[in-house]
Design goal:
alpha+beta; two-stranded antiparallel sheet; single chain
């Protein structure tokens, strides 16, 4: 399913394709390159918080360790 996300910074509409109806993770605006941590549930945007590059790296590392611990890696 294709989801539309309106960037809070530049108000451009970005699209994201998802296989599942839920997603929590980073999203970068295609136009202004602003970075956000978004939460989607039932194909609707529930939360959109600004994310720094450092926070993105920490989130990715935590997610990587979590996948490794669960055996998904």
């Amino acid at each position: 399913m294709m989801i539309e996300i309106k960037c809070p910074e530049c108000e451009s509409i970005g699209k994201m394709s998802l296989a599942q109806t839920m997603y929590e993770g980073p999203y970068r605006c295609w136009k202004c390159r602003s970075l956000y941590l978004i939460v989607l549930a039932n194909n609707k945007l529930q939360s959109c918080k600004p994310l720094s590059e450092e926070e993105l790296e920490a989130w990715q590392e935590l997610n990587k360790m979590s996948r490794r611990d669960s055996g998904d890696d």
